[in-house]
Amino acid sequence: MARVRMRDVAEHAGVSVRTVSNVVSGYVHVRPETRARVQRSLDELGYRMDYLARGLRSGRTGFIALAVPFLAEPYFAELAQALIRAAGRRGITVLVEATAGDSEVERRILEGGLTNVADGVLLSALTVPAADVAATKPDFPLVLLGEHSVGDQFPRVGIDNVAAARTAVEHLLDQGCRRIVALGRNSSENGRQRTEGYRQAMSAARVRRVNWLVVPVEDWTRDQGYAAVRELLEGDGPLPDAIFAFNDALAVGALRALDASGVRVPQDVAVAGIDAIQESAYTHPPLTSIAPDLDVIAERALTLLEEQMRRPAEPEGAAPSEGPKAGLAAVPHEATPFRLVVRESSCRRPTAQ
């Protein structure tokens, strides 16, 4: 079967080839009725974009790269899905890369390692130290996702980690909990920030230091949460009355360990996490968690990326500009909204909202 061309679609819809091109490219200044007519013709004829030809004409591929640490972890899978949906509405295809949280892989991406296949890069960094890329001035569209900061030269979108942790712990304190375990400290910036949020909440509530308990883990996974809580329960210390897990995967492991030990949730130990992954609504009992607005994160990150992609490239031989792109007055670090989703795992008081 012969390939359907834009000219064929234009004749079928009774419009110009330029109008078809504008619809396919997502150009906003097309009348709704014209866009609808062209879209019907595109669908009926089975038109498919020739990305190679478009790239040769425009210098753009129509692809962006998304690099996350782990696709098997629910939060990153759900974040990727939100970004793919939002990008699809903009006519952009997302290529997904898993870095395994390897700092060397993250550093290569920050130095342009994915720009041979994509017009821009969204990176959820996990481990690369800021010192490793301190002199890096990205000359390609790049936005960081999440709370791990790699340097002020990179635009970044994510929740306020300290405030999110503080909100979760304040909720547990409001339930009457005082011996609260912070589960998840590690060497990552995320771990340090969520520990700080825990400390701020405990300090503001004037909780005695003897009741502060920070439990380290290597990774924020279900099995690490399970092992850490089993070890805690088998120790000689008194039973905590709450666990604040630094993410929902740890919290799911903690719930399993508490159940295996015959500890009631929330009557004996209340539990809260961060991420509000879909799984958290179906645990036993359903898990209280901090919910980042993934759709807002996706939209803001893509907007920042497209703003960079629309800026003209600097002429060959020109002196390098300061910052990631010429004309960018300040590199934005945007804090996106989050909310506390209260479920049965933490409701020790009947009046809890």
**What is the CATH level 1 assignment of the largest domain?**
Alpha Beta
Radius of gyration: 24 Å
Distance from first to last alpha carbon: 61 Å
CATH architecture classification of the largest domain:
3-Layer(aba) Sandwich
Fraction of helical residues: 25-40%
Q: Return the CATH topology of the largest domain.
A: Rossmann fold
As for the number of domains, it is: 3
> Could you state the order of secondary-structure elements as H and E?
HHHHEHEHEEEHEHEHEHEEHEE
Silhouette:
elongated
Overall number of strands: 12
**Main sheet makeup:** 6 strands, parallel
The CATH H-level superfamily of the largest domain is Response regulator
Q: What average pLDDT do the residues reach? A: 87
Provide the spatial order of strands within the biggest beta sheet. 2-1-3-4-5-11
Helix-strand makeup class: alpha/beta
Q: Regions with pLDDT < 50 over 5+ consecutive residues?
A: 314-329
- Quaternary structure of the protein: single chain
Write the layout of secondary structure elements.
Blueprint: H1 6-13, H2 17-24, H3 32-45, H4 51-58, E1 63-68, H5 74-89, E2 93-98, H6 103-110, E3 121-123, E4 142-145, E5 156-158, H7 161-174, E6 180-185, H8 189-204, E7 212-216, H9 222-233, E8 242-245, H10 248-260, E9 270-274, E10 288-292, H11 294-310, E11 333-335, E12 338-341
Parallel strand pairs: 1-2, 1-3, 3-4, 4-5, 5-11, 6-7, 6-8, 8-9, 9-10
Antiparallel strand pairs: 10-12
Helix pairs in contact: 1-2, 1-3, 5-11, 7-8, 9-10
